[in-house]
Write a structure and sequence with these properties.
The protein is an alpha/beta fold and 233 residues long. The chain has a single domain, classed as Vaccinia Virus protein VP39 (Rossmann fold). 44% of the residues lie in helices and 19% in strands. The protein has nine helices and seven strands. Strands 3-2-1-4-5-7-6 form a seven-stranded mixed beta sheet, sandwiched between helices. A hairpin with a 3-residue loop joins strand 6 and strand 7. Helix 7 packs antiparallel against helix 8. The radius of gyration is 17 Å and the shape is globular. The termini are far apart.
């Protein structure tokens, strides 16, 4: 294998077990707890919050945020905590396709609704900030651009994207670490596939440009993460 193939492996589609709407609800809930732990250990929460922080600090009074594919809502919960430190009251809405997650009593959002990234049930420019963390890698590039276009429609001030940076090292590290962390086998399987479904910086930039016509600045973050944000109009 050429060195470029080792450093920049081709994007792989794979099949994540949790993408199946018929997956056992208890497996879904258990695996999403692993995702929340992974966000803490491997930097997913830190990366998203780092991209959100300057936007939150620029706002005053109150604001709204929609988290697309929210899971257990750990990132919106962290965003609310940060917002309070700056004197901002942040109201968060989580949207997810999974009924077990939407109906969970311990979700981290103020409000939860069921839906998908392609048909957000909100008016144009009706939400101050729209966030999508580790969602786009589930889609093809064309589908991801469609989702970003829909997020841009709904957002009034900013769209914030955070996702995985594809790497063999990241995939291997997750696999090895998942054992001492006590991950469910489904979490281990899906986690590795997620990493190999991730993006390179130029690819994430291409997706946003295809959706909006604007080339964003894509940031590399610790833990093999990528983030970007942009004004919707």
């Amino acid at each position: 294998m050429k060195l470029t193939g080792i450093l920049n492996p081709a994007r792989r589609r794979g099949i994540e077990i949790l993408d199946d709407p018929l997956v056992d609800p208890e497996v879904m809930r258990r695996s999403m707890r692993d995702v929340e732990l992974a966000n803490v250990v491997f930097g997913g929460r830190r990366a998203a919050i780092a991209e959100l922080a300057p936007i939150l600090k620029s706002l005053e009074g109150s604001a709204s945020m929609l988290d697309v594919g929210t899971g257990r809502g750990d990132i919106p919960a962290a965003a609310r905590t940060l917002a309070l430190k700056t004197g901002l009251s942040l109201s968060t809405i989580g949207i997810d396709i999974s009924e077990p997650l939407v109906s969970a009593s311990d979700a981290g959002n103020d409000f939860m609704i069921r839906g998908d990234a392609f048909h957000l049930p909100f008016g144009d420019g009706s939400i101050d900030i729209v966030l999508a963390s580790q969602i786009l890698h589930h889609f093809t590039a064309d589908q991801a651009a469609e989702a970003v276009r829909e997020m841009s429609r709904v957002a009034r001030m900013a769209v914030v994207l955070s996702d995985l940076r594809r790497s063999f090292a990241a995939a291997a590290g997750l696999w090895i670490s998942s054992f001492p962390l006590g991950f469910h086998p489904v979490s281990r399987h899906d986690g590795v596939i997620s990493v190999m479904r991730g993006f390179l910086p130029a690819e994430l930039g291409d997706i946003v440009e295809a959706a909006t016509g604007k080339r964003p600045r894509v940031q590399r973050r610790l833990g093999f993460r990528l983030t970007t944000s942009f004004a919707p109009r």
